[in-house]
């Protein structure tokens, strides 16, 4: 079992698609100083092309825009004109439908945060802590679609932490059913996204399309790969999605029914000792602790716990019995790091490690 | 069946206990211009006694302090020195344990928002829309305790709207089990209550003692009175309680399993056509519509819908099937009006109507 | 001196231009039940035309949409097709430039909240408490432009309360110079307006064009009408404009140098005893007290004091000496009522009273 | 002129007084890994003594509590029992009045963030960028008070950035008069500090005692040391202090009159090229750029610019002419880093460099 990741021989050139948006900015921030990946192109929409990134982008992050990015000229989403190996996609779903296949066809490894292809049968929906083996769908995908490259997706931000927790529970006890209520940050809606008049001092009990994703995507991620197709996990999921006046960090209340009886200390131990599969464990973006279990009764909180493991750790608290389903807990996950840009980058690292990106 | 409430012959003198606190202020606001009740005493803690209410009270409401209240001198919590018929209690639980019995012993009808006696077997826990008959426990209470007066309580703010919804469902379909996730306003914690450093841009997934109340109080309220004792309703309830940066208004996500199959339109109809029992229906604080069912997909929202029915209407939205329990919805209720001061006043009106307060 | 306003014989039909936006909604709310004006047309943009107002409008106010408005069909901004006497304009400046003259030409009394014509030499910029006589510019305007109707404007929301305060000081002591720092609510930017990602837990020290308006408009309003033109008041004004995470209510810190020495009690008295000119004093929208002077050291606050006088009263607090300019104070004014829709309606009432609208 | 600071030979043992409060926590955070200082004692109030710091302290910062701190036992404020050379004081003013002299008497270098002794004639009020020479007051202080150690203070959080800006302007142009309006974060009031009910969606135009500090402290800091006493700078200052719903970061609007005419580019240059005196320039806490001048029209903003220079840089924007006083701008400074704990630590580094702490 390796205890180190095998580094690529030389930096791998990467592009960011949809680089000026909220998630695109996170890609730029997280790629700054990345040990394996070297950003060579920032692609943007019509309006932005030809400007420097500094001019084109309304930078929303509290750390300064990296100097290398500020001076880059924003280029069109043209796979022929971009010389890179990986295309990180922060595109909106509608644009992704068209552009991601074009990049994959041209030979790019498209690591996408968009929802466009998450449900396609031949597109892996991957969390390196959970289902690194699903990347073998790439073969099928290439064969069926005749692409030189491929698309690998990461899940919706809200269910990322949740699915990692489910994996830890599934491996140890089995999971039957779960009910999830999310309280989601405004950054999940991009920029300009939610109007301040709608959310200041308010809660909105609805996020378009979100509940469907929460109820379906974990089943694919936790599914098993059989003869080149994914058999979805047999899980019943019900979700309520809410928007709250928080900048970053999706908090989720989970009630879950396990397949077998368990003691509190066993459930706690299953969570806090959870490890990613060894191939994913030593990658640059891998958090030291995939799941951090907090004991203080009023945690996790977005403001205090969000940056655990540089925003890549899933933070769990309030583990306690549930009179209805057996167990309940609160789960916090950084929606634009672990749930978006960080997820795509972590996936790309996995693909390098697996030899899909040379 | 009466279509009007029978008014008392003359104004009934009332006192507010704990009048300077956040809920006490709501009592003062709601009693201003009340057609039946005339505030004659505002009682406060040591620090406040002897000052005018305007001096003693840091008024937190956006409507001006009523002029009659501003000039009242705050008096001690002394049942012998207060000449009133009803004592509205906005006391904290610890003070209520001691003071409410003293007032009841002296002959006061104590209409209490405190949690101190909600679980006592001989103390009615009443919502006029749900269980007006439970007030007959007063007989038992007086007999057992030898009091001239009595204590009637209203439930915790978070479960008030929820319980009214459950009543509507129970009557029509039966209810088996439910899972509740609350997103509660800071005013529910009183003043000064939640520190701004704790809640600005944050969610706290914990409210001390709240989940226990949500899991137990509805069972008492929805229970049946048999031979002078209450048989709790046979309901399984699981709750997650969260604090969100909202000023007023508790929003609750409910997943519920009914005892029988139902169509969406039937569930909708059961909610929107729900009526309080006739004795409660025409009281001054009774909202015209106990439950308002909204169809817009992103409602109810605290900021927009909180003051429905002057803050006495329970607002329901997002009614839809739940793959796990059958039905889900969002419920909004004003925590310091319908869930606190307004609840006590509505109870007092019921007690007048029933002849317990003459 | 009249102590009552002379009512019009019968309801005056009015239209709202730009009715679906944030200020348009305030017009609809404030016109609901107005004793003199009867809304007969709600005009909207291309997208909204032909729908009911309920369908076309994302209602942002916490009081319900008036039933009469909900059912009205939104009509185009066509002066020929609308049969009304007054056109209340909630149009954005760019649309107002084109549409308001069209309505004025057709004979409408255009009472406009838009900035488009505020600086035109022949267009009155009016606050009924301050300069009701400026409406006589209407004669010049009609003559010069050959219009059957006319345009009367009200000032920018931020300086409305400020200018009323300046009027009270000017009349008594004279005013030389002032420095103004505003902290403005997000509703001032309309809907969707400010993105939540920009303002949650933040302050933005910039509002495009706002400082220019604050530095110029009060000079016109406080100016004197001489031979058909306005001689701007000789005032030096400096402004800093900031956006803060508040829903409604612009708070302004004012430092001001008077033309003569004064005692604190005299300044206080000049403010609290200020009265609108008698012609403006008894109109339906006139607040009983134009300026409310608060003595508590931490007031006024948007959350607590905004609705003074139904949102039409200017609330002043923290009056104290300023070591630099002589006097300082804090001024609160409701930006979408006194500073926008309420201002236009109050102006229309004045025009009725003056006989400009028959 | 040295281009490096002279490091102490070995780590200097330091204590934090009032270590469990909001500012105390910042001290602990900033001392973690400090190259010169080694925390050996965390002192707290009665309630905390004997517990570990992890038990005693409600940690409010989004970075984890340092491991060394978590396990330290909180000790009493007893100078005889603490073996350290520097006492960083995060005490409230009332406790500081009594305890800081006791520590100074015992030989401690007390680097205090408290306001208790800031105005004492023999106590230096120091910003290393501005007046490092004022530390020579220590001689007078020791002589007059017979102390082995001494007290050095840093100014109120709100005026720290302001005073650095004034220094840059004073050196180049002279400064006559200024008007300051602050918009201050809630962390400035400590914990629990401001109640959420008071500040959510609100602005409070009052902070007790703050305006006096803003109007007086800069005059002392910018004063000149003459024969062992400080001649306050001849500046006229007027301040308005406001609390806004922001977690960290005080934003200040400044209008200022310089002693001579200047061009915009000269003022800009004076700010952006400002350097600390050479003795202060290379200390561990010295920001590379004392003043960062931003050109984007809507900056600085607390959310985006607060952590410039690790929270030690003063960020200025919106530099423009002021029709009244000549110049206006917005200034942002981190209130608990540059304005509190970071300021005290920077002062301590200066004192080491100057040889006052050996």
Main interface: chain pair and counts: A-B, 42 and 42 residues
Strand content of chain A: 15-25%
Total number of helices of chain A:
12
Biggest sheet descriptor of chain A: 6 strands, mixed
The CATH superfamily label of the largest domain in chain A reads Dihydrodipicolinate Reductase, domain 2
What is the total number of structural domains of chain A?
2
- Mean pLDDT across the residues of chain A is 96
How are the strands of the biggest sheet of chain A laid out side by side? 9-6-10-13-12-11
What is the CATH level 1 assignment of the largest domain in chain A? Alpha Beta
* CATH fold type of the largest domain in chain A: Dihydrodipicolinate Reductase, domain 2
Shape of chain A: globular
Low-confidence stretches of chain A: none
Give the beta-strand count of chain A: 13
Structural class of chain A: alpha/beta
Task: Report Rg of chain A.
Answer: 19 Å
């Amino acid at each position: 079992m390796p205890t180190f990741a095998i580094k690529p021989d030389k930096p791998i050139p990467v592009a960011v698609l949809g680089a000026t948006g909220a998630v695109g900015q996170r890609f730029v921030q997280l790629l700054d100083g990345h040990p394996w990946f070297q950003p060579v192109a920032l692609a943007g929409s019509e309006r932005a092309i030809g400007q420097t990134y500094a001019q084109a982008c309304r930078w929303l992050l509290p750390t300064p825009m990296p100097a290398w990015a500020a001076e880059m000229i924003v280029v069109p989403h043209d796979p022929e004109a971009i010389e890179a190996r990986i295309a990180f996609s922060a595109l909106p779903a509608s644009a992704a439908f068209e552009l991601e296949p074009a990049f994959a066809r041209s030979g790019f490894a498209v690591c996408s945060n968009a929802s466009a292809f998450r449900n396609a049968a031949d597109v892996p929906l991957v969390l390196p802590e959970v289902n690194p083996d699903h990347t073998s769908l790439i073969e099928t995908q290439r064969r069926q679609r005749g692409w030189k490259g491929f698309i690998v997706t990461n899940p919706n931000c809200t269910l990322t932490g949740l699915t990692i927790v489910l994996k830890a529970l599934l491996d140890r006890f089995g999971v039957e059913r779960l009910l999830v209520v999310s309280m989601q940050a405004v950054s999940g809606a991009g920029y300009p996204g939610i109007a301040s008049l709608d959310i200041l001092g308010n809660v909105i009990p609805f996020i378009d399309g979100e509940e469907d994703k929460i109820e379906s995507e974990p089943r694919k991620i936790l599914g098993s790969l059989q003869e080149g197709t994914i058999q979805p996990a047999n899980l019943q999921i019900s979700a309520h999605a809410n928007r709250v006046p928080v900048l970053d960090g999706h908090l989720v209340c989970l009630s879950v029914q396990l397949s077998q009886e368990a003691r509190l200390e066993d459930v706690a131990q299953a969570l806090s000792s959870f490890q990613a599969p060894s191939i994913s464990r030593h990658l640059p973006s891998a958090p030291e602790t995939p799941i951090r279990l907090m004991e203080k009764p009023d945690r996790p909180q977005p403001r205090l716990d969000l940056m655990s493991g540089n925003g890549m750790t899933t933070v769990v608290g309030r583990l306690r019995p549930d009179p209805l389903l057996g167990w309940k807990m609160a789960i916090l996950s950084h929606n634009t790091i672990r749930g978006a840009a960080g997820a795509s980058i972590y996936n790309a690292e996995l693909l390098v490690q697996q030899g899909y990106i040379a």
